[in-house]
UniProtKB/TrEMBL annotation:
One Gene Ontology term of the molecular function aspect: single-stranded DNA binding
Region (Disordered): 107-136
Any one cellular-component term (Gene Ontology): nucleoid
Matches recorded under InterPro entries: NA-bd_OB-fold (IPR012340), Primosome_PriB/ssb (IPR000424), ssDNA-bd (IPR011344)
Protein name, per record: Single-stranded DNA-binding protein
A Pfam family of this chain: SSB
Keywords from the named record: DNA-binding
Subunit structure: Homotetramer.
Organism: Crocosphaera chwakensis CCY0110
Amino acid sequence: MATLNLNYVNLVGRVGQIPDVKVFESGSVLTKLNLAVSRRKKDEDPDWFSLEFWGKQAEIAADYVQKGSLIGIEGELKLDEWNDKATGVLRSKPVIRVNRLELLVSANNSSNSNNNHSQPTSSQTEPQTQNQDDEF
């Protein structure tokens, strides 16, 4: 009997920083940012998620996403691991590798930007694998 494995994340939230973009010598593009996702109760603090985008998704995020932008994402959870330079201790951090990005317009932004319908919405693409030489 085959085992079913499922790793799927679907979030809508606001971007908490200016996207961090890196272009590698190979031409691969990586964009990183944090996403604040509100909880059901208004008085609770949002949950923060680290996102990474590769390839075309990274280019779209770099060109069209700003701090405060409302976005929807589909992706998969992965665990980044590294050795702390100061202590040598193995550290880890959960990161969502985004496979699909949707640029959303909230009611608050629709009156300020009437031409948002012309902004591209990316379609799902295969995530690119990161080469060991591409780490930073």
